[in-house]
């Protein structure tokens, strides 16, 4: 059920990019899912196992990135990081980037990437093997294709997941820190 809702949301997002705006009052596309996302556990940049369910009770910004990307990934990471910094140390807010490059996203590469893009501590970059990452990509309806050793073609949506584990907002890869800050402030009340 969740994949179907997310699949429809992705279609709606592309329609929004074609000229139809986001949801009333939000820059992101408001998702109406009542289903919780499936739990998963991956390693963060410090080598610790992080489970998605450990973020229940918080709003979580979820993105799909890779460290060797020269396209949208650095911009997305910078915008999410800036939004987190502007919102301060909100205990009810975190960000998770899920790797789309299980080979290249080593702990060293991830740490360097986060440092270069000024990611705060509340921004965790999760990686694992392809077998571990594939179900997460599927849960969020993200297509990932390796073009060669260093180029990965992938969808780069940004989601906001509510404190109950349900996706509530969806953005394109062009989301700005300003849009995230505005929408997250509204959600956080």
Low-confidence spans = 8-21
- The largest beta-sheet arranges its strands as 1-10-9-4-5-6
What pattern of helices and strands is seen along the backbone?
Answer: HEEEEHEHEHEEEEH
**Broad structural category:** alpha+beta
The Cα radius of gyration reads 15 Å
Please report the total strand number as a whole number.
10
In whole angstroms, the N-to-C terminal distance is 29 Å
Helical content (DSSP H or I, runs of 4+): 25-40%
Sheet with most strands = 6 strands, mixed
Task: Count helical runs.
Answer: 5
Strand residue content: 15-25%
Question: Brief description of this entry?
Answer:
It is built from five helices and ten strands; from the N terminus they run αββββαβαβαββββα.
Using brief descriptors, characterize the structure shown:
two-stranded antiparallel ribbon, 33% helix, single chain, six-stranded mixed beta sheet, 189 residues, alpha+beta
């Amino acid at each position: 059920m969740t994949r179907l809702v997310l699949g429809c949301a992705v279609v709606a997002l592309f329609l929004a990019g074609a000229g139809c705006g986001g949801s009333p009052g939000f820059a992101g596309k408001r998702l109406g899912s009542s289903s919780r996302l499936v739990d998963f556990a991956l390693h963060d940049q410090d080598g610790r196992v992080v489970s998605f369910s450990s973020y229940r009770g918080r709003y979580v910004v979820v993105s799909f990135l890779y460290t060797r990307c020269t396209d949208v990934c650095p911009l997305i990471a910078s915008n999410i990081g800036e939004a987190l910094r502007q919102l301060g140390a909100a205990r009810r807010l975190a960000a998770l980037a899920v790797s789309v490059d299980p080979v290249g996203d080593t702990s060293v590469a991830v740490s360097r990437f986060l440092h270069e893009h000024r990611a705060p501590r509340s921004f965790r970059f999760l990686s694992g093997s392809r077998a571990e990452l594939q179900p997460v990509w599927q849960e969020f309806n993200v297509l990932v294709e390796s073009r060669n050793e260093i180029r990965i073609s992938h969808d780069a949506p940004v989601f906001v997941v509510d404190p109950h584990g349900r996706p509530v907002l969806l953005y394109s890869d062009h989301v700005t820190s300003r849009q995230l800050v505005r929408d997250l402030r509204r959600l956080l009340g």
